Amino acid sequence: MPTVPFIAIEGPIGVGKTSLAKKLSAYFGYHLLPEIVEENPFLDKFYNNSDEWSFQTEMFFLCNRFKQMEDIERTYLNHHKAVIADYHISKNMIFAGRTLPEDKYEKYKQIHHILTRDLPIPNIMIYLHASLDTMLERIRKRGRTIEHHIQPSYLSQIADDYDAHMNAFEALHPDMSIIRIDGDDRDFVNHQDDLEAIIRQVQQHIDKQIGSDH
Fold it and tell me: What is the pLDDT of residues 148-172, one digit of tens each?
């Protein structure tokens, strides 16, 4: 793991990852690594016809996130500069497992393993989760055109997959600090008290993982 704070925020679609990453980045002064979503040329096609466009969609995400992670490691982490990201590349396996047919999933899994096996692992992971109603409302409010076709059943499945993935990820990386935040109870966008409570949690884990001198 990096010797400087490398914080990743994860959770299902619409749970508030980017909003929290921006706020924590501004507070701690860490470099912000944003997730690429709208730039995926296949995503709108995927939401309309997932069977036809799932492999292209997942491969685009994987390759772009791999390049981002390489750049972050070379430019920031290797130079002892802290980073906070609103995703972690392991999330790709969640969506690929849900969207790809078995034969393509096996090919994808092999490529994913080859690309990601030497990438840096966060020392702190923030896992945001929320009820289906909360996620749907936040998706509606932000009004991304490409998300208009997301079905509640699909979002619910992804949320369940995230729970299973995070439990497995935590078992695989016992030295990592994982902070679980209920998005129904913590409205860090509209309530400063909720944000400050999260900041205190994060600071405690930074001190634990890195030391209070950072």
Answer: 778 899 899 999 999 999 999 999 9
Is this structure's pTM higher than 0.70? yes
Write down all domains in the chain, each with its CATH number in brackets. Answer: 6-209 (3.40.50.300)
Residue 31 half-sphere exposure toward CB, CA atoms < 13 A: 17
93 burial level (CB within 10 Å; 0-12, 13-18, 19+): buried
- 207 catalytic? Reply is no
Residue 158 neighbours by CB distance under 10 Å: 20
> CA–CA separation, 105 vs 107, rounded Å?
5
Q: Which amino acid would we find at residue 167?
A: N
Q: Which of 86, 103, 133, 194 is catalytic?
A: 86
Determine the Cα–Cα distance for residues 9 and 27; give it in Å rounded to an integer. Answer: 15
